[in-house]
Design a protein that fits this description.
By secondary structure, this protein is α/β, with parallel strands linked by helices. It has a domain of 180 residues: P-loop containing nucleotide triphosphate hydrolases (Rossmann fold, 3-Layer(aba) Sandwich). A ten-stranded mixed β-sheet has the order 5-4-1-2-10-9-3-8-7-6, sandwiched between helices. Helix 3 packs parallel to helix 6, helix 4 crosses helix 6 and helix 6 packs parallel to helix 7. The longest helix has 14 residues. The protein is globular, with a radius of gyration of 19 Å. The chain binds adenosine-5'-triphosphate (ATP) and magnesium ion (MG). The site of magnesium ion has 3 residues, from helix 1.
């Protein structure tokens, strides 16, 4: 997995282009769990230095799609993925591609903060150590990542204490520090604020906006206000029941700039969902 040295002229300060200049794309992505067709034909493009929100009712496949992007679904034995997931035009499912490498470039933050049972310092140093990443000074690298996750000032005097000694919001920022420690390009976040209070949520949202300067972020959220506040583009999914089996297969309804999705959606299903009439 090599990251091409193409830099895209768009920075968040400039106007959002009509179409994303993609770091990642899915093409005809279909996901099955055993015989169950969980996600049908998803085509999405995730723009560089943009925040893309995936929204939709429970069970429509948001987490499934997110997990495909860095091959986390490989860890689910029944999961089967068809179609393509491209990272800088390379298919992350190509046989020659190492999933560990994929996850180094495409990091993940989960719904429930999940620090390792290690010190704050070792949580952050873990990824660079296991991947053999070269850093001049681990102390400096850990500090940089904790600063990047807006946590340094709160933990600088207790780096040897357990990650579990932190509050929920701090633990989530520690997980973000851990995710950026391997210097990824893309960060996936699956409902990262759903267990947090409004103050901790605001801190993570501010952090996402800062991280966007350096990373491409894809976030699943059930919180419409959050999607509207932080994301540049929004993808709305829904689930359609199969007429014979009744199984609900997730599909992408609409993908556009967040302002368009929330102010002027083109599909009635999107309109119904964002106005709270459904889901
Ligand atoms: N490991 C699994 N094994 C079997 N089925 C699964 C598995 N994970 C998810 N599914 C099914 O796939 C469908 C999509 O699930 P997914 O978790 O992606 O939905 P979601 O949109 O993230 O929902 P939520 O908003 O509740 O988190 C659901 O019907 C779910 O039951
Ligand atoms: Mg989910």
């Amino acid at each position: 997995m090599t990251e091409p040295s193409v830099t895209h002229p768009y920075t968040p300060q400039q106007e959002l282009p009509d179409h994303p200049v993609p770091v990642m794309q899915t093409r005809s992505l279909n996901v099955f769990y055993g015989g169950f067709h969980a996600v049908h034909d998803v085509d999405l493009a995730f723009g560089r230095h943009e925040i893309t929100a995936l929204i939709g009712p429970s069970g429509c496949g948001k987490s499934t799609v997110l997990r495909c992007l860095n091959r986390m679904n490989d860890l689910v034995p029944s999961a089967r993925v068809e179609g393509e997931v491209l990272y800088h035009d390379q298919d992350v499912y190509a046989p020659s591609v190492d999933p560990i490498e994929v996850r180094r470039h495409i990091g993940m933050v989960f719904q429930k903060a999940n620090p390792f049972p290690k010190s704050i310092y070792d949580n952050v140093a873990y990824g660079p150590r296991v991947t053999g990443m070269k850093v001049d000074s681990m102390d400096d690298h850990v500090e940089k990542c904790l600063r990047g996750a807006a946590l340094w000032d709160e933990v600088k005097d207790k780096l040897k204490e357990s990650g579990y000694s932190l509050s929920g919001g701090q633990q989530q920022r520690l997980c973000i520090a851990r995710a950026i420690a391997t210097e990824p390009d893309v960060i996936l976040m699956d409902e990262p604020c759903s267990a947090l209070d409004p103050i901790a949520t605001a801190a993570i949202e501010d952090l996402m906006l800062q991280l966007r300067e350096q990373y491409t972020i894809i976030i699943v959220t059930h919180n419409m206000q959050q999607a509207a506040r932080v994301s540049d583009r929004t993808a709305f999914f829904t689930a359609r029941p199969d007429e014979t089996t009744g199984n609900r297969t997730g599909l992408l309804v609409e993908f556009d700039k967040t302002s368009t999705i929330f102010e002027n959606p083109s599909d009635q299903r999107t309109e119904d969902y964002i106005s709270g009439r459904f889901g």
